[in-house]
Amino acid sequence: MKLRGIIPAMVTPMHEDESINVEELRNQCERQIAAGAAALFCLGTNGEFYALSHDEKKLVMRVMAETAKGRIPIMAGTGCVTTAETIELTLYAKELGYDLVSVIEPYFAQSSQEVMYRHYTEVANTCRIPMILYNIPPRTGINMEPSLVKRLAENPYIIGIKDSSGNFDNTLAYLHETPDDFIVLCGNDSHILPGLKAGMNGGIAGCANICPKRMVSIFRLFEEGRLEEAELAQQSLVPLRSLFPGIGSLPVIKRGMQLAGMPVGPSRRPFNIDLPELDKKLLDVLKLYEE
Asked: Distance of alpha carbon 20 from its chain centroid, rounded?
């Protein structure tokens, strides 16, 4: 499938008791569709997949599928620690009508390039749904080498990769080692415009939860050849991203959304935050993204 543009790495809205806020999840899906997202993506890192139960993941997937109603491609993060659980959740996404899935590297237990090759190949051949690989070594402890991605790209169901390594040269290597129709997506919001210039397909963006139209404008301005304006839109993310170090992107993004009037709730404990000094900074930053 063809996939180009900005895909929001959507948060999972919660009530104060940490139960899933279904109504707000529907609202956020509609908000992203209206902003021009290339697809909807649930259960990524910003969606707190690591903090949700199996049943909660299925609930989020059902709600997104019901809300999208075929108007826009939908993608779910279905990667789990084990191959068996990844297959079970991926088949559920396929049953719901998802267009594609994102599968993170197996994490926590020590892995290797060959372990990942066997894992991804079994999931792909069993589930037979388009798959985006998800490389995020800061969280999984291992980087997918370009040679591994080149091998995996030979599988007809493995159609792309999201690189959240933070190493732009690594992302470029994926681009250069894979076929022209293999989708390469930036997982670092600060690399979206440089990635587009290098020939990548777009980005999966956490900042899109705060400023979806601004994020989409980076891609649209690039496509229109308005590079100076695209650069200004890209650089406008710096004040928001400058708040992430020492706290993490998700707690900042969720708190910013709450301050902007969206009841997405806190991050699930123990990753929730209560920092009055952050609120003041966020309120100033949010003024930059009024849409």
From this structure: 19
Task: Please state the domain count of the chain.
Answer: 1
User: Which domain does 171 fall in, by range?
Assistant: 5-226
HEC sequence for the chain:
CCCCEEEEECCCCECCCCCECHHHHHHHHHHHHHHCCCCEEECCCCCCHHHCCHHHHHHHHHHHHHHHCCCCCEEEECCCCCHHHHHHHHHHHHHHCCCEEEEECCCCCCCCHHHHHHHHHHHHHHHCCCEEEEECHHHHCCCCCHHHHHHHCCCCCEEEEEECCCCHHHHHHHHHHCCCCCEEEECCHHHHHHHHHHCCCEEEECHHHCCHHHHHHHHHHHHCCCHHHHHHHHHCCHHHHCCCCCCCHHHHHHHHHHHCCCCCCCCCCCCCCCCHHHHHHHHHHHHHHCC
The answer to whether the CB of 164 falls within 8 A of the CB of 45 is yes
Residue 282 lies in a domain: no
pLDDT digits (tens, 9 = 90+) for 72-94: 999 999 999 999 999 999 999 99
Identified catalytic residue from 134, 157, 174, 289: 134
User: Could you tell me the CATH number of the domain that includes residue 25?
Assistant: 3.20.20.70
| Res 291 pLDDT > 90 | no
Catalytic residue among 57, 94, 98, 162: 162
Q: Is 134 among the catalytic positions?
A: yes
Decide: pTM greater than 0.85. yes
Residue 247 lies in a domain: no
162 is catalytic: yes
